[in-house]
């Protein structure tokens, strides 16, 4: 039999073990368990390229996680997917174009812009470098290829008219997105819809030298090429989360400005067989983009009420929207 003394010692030993075990499960009780990250799905406007560097840098460096966000970037299957899916709340945020946002709102699609990413046009009118076309008015009697987007028609007509030419004397041909081969094989005399940070760079690299006519030099309002949008309901319900997202995105852009080469190395990790990235092209692209992504005296993402008013008026004048709407309903100021 176990003696009373030995029994007491055994009980004491068991109590000590229980006490120590209890302490070990409560070491440093001041530290809270990590909070679960909130998920946010963001749709790009196209496949990953230089303009998206700030987003991938922010993700790679953990800026989103520091804000408690788990971000997923997805690509659109169709060009209208960003606005369509964000309005349907299938995604939280999307990248798209200012004129498209105004057009969507005119159709009662409940979206709202929350930040400007590229504050100026990227869409330029391109002609061969050795062409006798020296300004838009010289396009009278010429053929212009474009991807059958009505805004491109308005853009070309505005530029030619502003330059003293007659837009009715040009022929616009739908070449889809085969803009570069249409120009390089001389099927058309000029193209509209090519971007200065992509098609222009690629054409020059491939040995087909081109020159550009920039829209705002010929009467087109200075619209924002790329913006961040969400749905009206998403903005109301996830205001704090979206603000945190943009705070992290701003840090990403600061890092891109500070270290563009290292930032592009992060971007290059996103390439796939379906969309290979050329380091030389993306480097030139980022060099062109960075000045267009800044507004003197304002934070990255700032939007101008005056810009919204001018762009809406232009779209209305060219019958691309049926009516004008209060611009205050089109955007919110997430930064100063």
TrEMBL record:
> What biological-process terms (Gene Ontology) are attached?
thiamine biosynthetic process
- Write down the species: Tepidibacillus fermentans
What is the name of the protein in this document? Answer: Putative hydroxymethylpyrimidine transport system substrate-binding protein
**Transmembrane regions listed in the UniProt entry:** none
Question: Taking every annotated instance into account, which residue ranges of this chain make up the domain SsuA/THI5-like?
Answer: 49-262
């Amino acid at each position: 039999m176990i003696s009373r003394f030995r029994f007491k010692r055994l009980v004491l030993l068991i109590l000590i073990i229980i006490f120590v075990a209890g302490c070990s499960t409560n070491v440093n009780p001041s530290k809270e368990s990590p909070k679960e990250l909130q998920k946010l799905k963001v749709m790009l406007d196209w496949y990953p390229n230089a303009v998206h560097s700030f987003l991938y840098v922010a993700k790679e460096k953990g800026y989103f996680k520091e804000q408690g966000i788990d971000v997923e970037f997805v690509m659109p299957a169709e060009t209208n997917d960003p606005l369509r899916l964000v309005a349907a709340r299938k995604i939280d945020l999307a990248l798209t174009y200012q004129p498209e946002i105004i057009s969507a709102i005119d159709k009662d699609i409940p979206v709202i812009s929350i930040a400007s990413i590229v504050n100026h046009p990227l869409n330029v009118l391109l002609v061969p470098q050795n062409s006798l076309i020296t300004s838009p008015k010289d396009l009278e009697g010429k053929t212009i290829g474009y991807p059958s987007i009505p805004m491109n028609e308005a853009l070309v007509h505005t530029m030619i008219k502003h330059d003293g030419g007659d837009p009715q004397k040009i022929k616009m041909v739908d070449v889809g997105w085969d803009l570069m081969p249409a120009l390089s094989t001389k099927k058309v005399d000029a193209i509209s819809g090519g971007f200065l940070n992509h098609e222009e760079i690629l054409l020059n690299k491939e040995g087909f030298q081109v020159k550009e006519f920039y829209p705002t030099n010929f009467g087109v309002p200075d619209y924002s090429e790329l913006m961040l949008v969400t749905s009206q309901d998403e903005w109301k319900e996830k205001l704090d989360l979206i603000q945190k997202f943009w705070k992290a995105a701003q840090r990403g852009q600061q890092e891109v400005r500070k270290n563009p080469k290292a930032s592009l190395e992060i971007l290059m990790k996103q390439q796939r067989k379906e969309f290979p990235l050329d380091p030389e092209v993306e480097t030139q692209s980022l060099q062109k983009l960075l000045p267009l992504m800044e507004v003197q005296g304002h934070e990255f993402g700032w939007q101008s009420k005056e810009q919204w008013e001018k762009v809406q008026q232009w779209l209305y004048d060219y019958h691309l929207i049926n009516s004008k709407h209060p611009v205050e309903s089109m955007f919110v100021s997430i930064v100063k």
